[in-house]
Amino acid sequence: MLDSKISRRSFIKASTATAVLATAGTASFNEWSNQYVKASESTEIKEIPSTCNGCSSKCGIIGHVKNGRLWKLSGHPDHPYSKGKLCARGHGYATLVYSQDRITEPLKRVGEGKFEPISWEQAYKEIAERLNKIIEEHGPRAISLTEDPRATGKFYSPRFIQALGSPNYYTHHVVCSNSRDAGFLHTLGTTATSADISSSKYIMFIGRSYGDAIRPSSVQSLAEAKDSGAKIVIVDPRLNNTGNLATEWLAIRPGTDLALVLAMSHVLVKENLHDIEFLNNYSIGFEEYANELDKYTPVWAEELTGISADVITRIAIDMGKAKPKSLIEQSWRGAFGCNYENSTETGRAVALFNAMLGNLQQKGGSIFGGKPKLGNLDSKKHPNPQEPDFKKAGYEEFPLAYYNNGVATIVAKEAMEGKMKAAIFYHSNAALGYGNPKYMKEALSKLDLVVAIDVQMSETALLADYILPDVSYIERDELIEELSGKTPGIALRQKIVDKVHPKTKPIDVIYKELAEACGVGQYFNFTLDELNEAMLAPTGVTYKELRKKGTIMFPDKAIELGVMPELKTPSKKVEFYSDKFKEAGFSPVVKWVEPKVSPKQDSFRLITGKQAIHSHTQTANIPILMQITKDYDLERIWMNPARARELGIKDGDLVEVKSSEATSTVHVKVTEKVHPEAIFVPSHYGITSNYQKTAKGVGFGYMEHVPFDFEAWSGSGNIQEVIVKVRKVKG
Amino acid sequence: MNTNIDQGQAVSQLLYIMADLYKYPDIEIWEDISSYRLFNELKVCESIITEADSLIEITELPKDLQYLQEIYLESLGGKVLPVESIYKEWTADRICHLPFARSKGYLFGDSALHIHYILEKFDIEIPEEYRNMPDHISILLELLGYFISHGNKELAFQFLADHFDWLGDFEDRLREQSGNQFYLQVTRYLEYILDTLKRLPANK
Lengths: 731, 204
Ligand code: SF4
Hints:
Chain A is built from 24 helices and 28 strands.
């Protein structure tokens, strides 16, 4: 009767005999559902320890699995970041595994924003051919790989690009902590210290907010400190969500944190409250710095920061008296991770202020965490790729930037200049988040090859020639994660449920197979399990044991407080005077540096920050988290009432925000909680990818207003050097 | 549903054709579509099931296979997945602690578990790539066709009642999509056919 060929594509394969035997009742959904619900109380629940991926804290989690599905998540009690608890993002982000917006199979671009499915084999073959051709024609310096690193990526990504002969491995830190990292690195020999918050008596946060999207244990420690009577000062142009734990909020003029720290340092010296013995034993160049500090009086700083000289003096004296149990928290992105032209110098001044308090490696002070001693692959059996004999792109321009992380936006700049030809992005939405999206889009379009490896159709994926689908973090095993801190430990992310989309693959497999296609498979002749076994070897912990426990701490390897370690700076001491800075053409001692731009009377500085329910734009497409945004209008910009009055703007009005780069419309929240010179916009919104149905169209993209730029010291994105004008559109 | 073998086969065949329309289009189905062979067959099947002529037409034919593949990827391949779980409360398990347990919009919900149960019970296999998406519309339609063609009327009717009540919401989502309306029309036609099946005298 029928001629069409459709029966060839039939999905189901049945054995005929059984169908006729069944009766409808036994197979009806209601009947089944009743049975299933009844049985559910006694259904076996498997508990699998793993780690969260809701943000880069990677807290320990326990995945509870019932009927092969994720059924519950809880915080891992032994993990130092979760301590048995998960934050809202951690719970919300897990929905990703069953999200309808995942990338489910490899895709190849066939036109602007248009893709067609491609087999893994074909995708590998084509990518390999194009990479090898680019290397042949332009050399390995013309290819790059960028990621927001997680444990497996940290090992595999640099190894992969190095196997192809290139050192061009980059991380997201260019819009996170590059400035702080550079400031700390050349001062203390580490990109970041941690802090013994719960034992501290006086804590200052500069733009950093534990109440907005930081790991659960950090909030716990701060609450403990508060309960023990610690003074907690928030320095931030907006009153962030740590406000309810704070004793004082200093609404500083944005971009002037360096002036505040310099003036407080001045007071310490003037009042003789710095720890002279510590400085004599463990630092170099303090005298030069003290001389420089002479001019940075509280009165001088008052003019710049808007904080009264009396307050600056009082706080510096109180912190000096509370030393060594007082500190400026080291922050991450905060106010000096990548925000202003003076951020690296702010980072340096903060590290030095802590050193002046003598709080390094002291109870209640700044801590150099201990790391677990892990093993590595036997290099005879598993040869390491050769180190390229040239430095990664961006090193020459920004020699102070932390080399391992590099300056990721150099890839875009060099693409514009025709020097960079290929870019691989793994777990990274660089096109939306790292630099001005218009610039990034143009830059990526100039590349001969863009590959995106991701779980969802990000703006970067939309610009890629090939998209390779990663499994979600709930569906994969990963490399062992080092936990550094007062007590070192290890944690393991492991597969909680089977992958939902069978054509997705974990990153270790993708790198291995792509390397084989590129002809460098010899550098990936091991499995993830073999690598994990090798890492565990020196610890005495078996892989089986780690799989069972998920997190294992080593209390016998805890660091000894009160014992100052040898630092990894050239002098092995705290460097108040840095030859490295001098060699790079900068002042060897910290000096005041003006921010790059300043608002006038009719304009504002655009500033950004986090909200507790989101992680950058990574969680914007999670429906239950975005619903909270919508329920509370969290995407609005904040404006101070005095400025709003001048502009005839009322709470809830629709306004236009205009910068040199873009114009956006958004509703406004009029609040005393923001400095009059600043407009605050949360950093989670403005998704433009059509594939992220939940997120698209909510709020505006902060980065659209940020001019593509590099901070001179560390190459960071200068993401708060933005001036905007605001006008009312509709009441 | 009439157990008359010709009518049963016609219904099954029609459902298999519809199932195929919801799969990623290849050259073979495109040839069937573009030559109108497929629609003619649908009409033949339809005329065996009911005397009433469908007023619903599939008129928005894409111009070529590449375009059909494009609109598939723009809709059924991602933005509007034709998977039952997405349109239903994820689980009836009241003690499930996930924050989305009672929400719609997620894969591998209870309806998927039910299909797993059915597949196991009837010893039916599906492709590996649909293991965690067994309530994809193509599988549901093939299962329905299979139950009909094997003469288990009660089971088929129950299955029809259980697993196709979400098509209205699915249609709404397709309507929100701009561009070619091919899949919207296919879905409207499917809804008409399934309604017709429910109303057949043998099912009352
Ligand atoms: S802080 Fe929250 S989102 Fe981040 S890893 Fe921990 S639980 Fe997950």
